[in-house]
Structure formats: C-alpha cells, structure tokens
C-alpha cells in the first residue's frame, strides 16, 4: 500500500492517530543491517503501522508496510511535512487557548477585586 501525496487534508481526518506495531525484528537491528539500503526484507512479517481515526467506530484501518519498496523518499518527506504542519497548527491553537485562559483568569481576578470593593463600601455604609 502506498501513501498518496495528492491527498487533500479533510477536516474529518484532522484527528488521525498513528499506532506503530513492530514485527519480530527490532528497530535497532534494522539500523545495524549492512543491507539497510536494500528494499528486500528477510522477515516473514514486515513492520507495519496502522493509521486509525481517533473517532472511528468501525475496526477498518489502513495499514502501511514500511518494508515495501513502493514507499519513496518523496512519500516519507510528504508525510513528515504533513505532520510538521499539523504540529504547528496544534501549537498555534494551544497558544491561543492558553492566552484566552489567561485573559479569563485576569478578568475573573479584576471582577473579584471590584466585588470586594463594593462589598467593603456596603459594609461602611451599613455601619
């Protein structure tokens, strides 16, 4: 199966979760192979990643076999760039929400100070 670089981001697909499942071969072992530049794999079970939707109710998932020669450098770069773009969007949204929360806290403190001042005035008038 191949990652398609022509896919347009869809609002419904914004919440993708990647779950990696390792086969019998460890990642460290694959890095130390002398034939690591080769596309062929001696494993009977290739390493795979399941791409699941976070809000998906069915068990259908898309499986990517990284040992498959169909993965080009361009595919991997495009996937990485998409992840970086998503990370930046999430970081920006996080900062906006954080700023909004700080603004709400500050307005709450200001309101509390005003209420305390009004209560103090009422006590003085009532005495």
Question: What does the secondary structure layout of this molecule look like, with pairings?
Answer:
Layout: E1 16-21, H1 27-32, E2 48-53, E3 62-65, H2 73-126
Antiparallel strand pairs: 1-2, 2-3
In terms of structural class, how would the helical and strand content be classed?
alpha+beta
Q: Spatial order of the strands in the main sheet?
A: 1-2-3
* H/E series: EHEEH
Return Rg in Å. Answer: 27 Å
Query: What percent strand?
Result: 5-15%
Q: Report helical residue fraction.
A: 40-55%
* Annotation, overall tally of beta strands: 3
Query: How many structural domains does the protein architecture include?
Result: 2
Helices, by number, come to: 2
Instruction: Report the span from N to C terminus.
Output: 82 Å
- Which outline best applies? rod-shaped
User: What can be said about the biggest beta sheet?
Assistant: 3 strands, antiparallel
Model regions low in confidence, pLDDT < 50 over at least 5 residues: 1-44
| Average pLDDT | 67
What do these coordinates show?
With 127 residues, the protein is an alpha+beta fold. It folds into two domains: 1-71, no CATH class; 73-127. Helix content is 47%, strand content 13%. It has two helices and three strands, in the order βαββα. The chain has helices spanning 27-32, 73-126; strands at 16-21, 48-53, 62-65. The protein has a three-stranded antiparallel β-sheet, with no helix packed on it. Strand 2 and strand 3 (62-65) form a beta hairpin. The longest helix has 54 residues, at 73-126. It starts with 15 loop residues before the first strand and ends with a helix. Residues 1-44 have low confidence and may be disordered. Residues 73-107 form a coiled coil. Residues 1-48 are annotated as: Disordered. Residues 33-43 have a biased composition (Low complexity). Residues 1-24 have a biased composition (Basic and acidic residues). Keywords: Coiled coil.
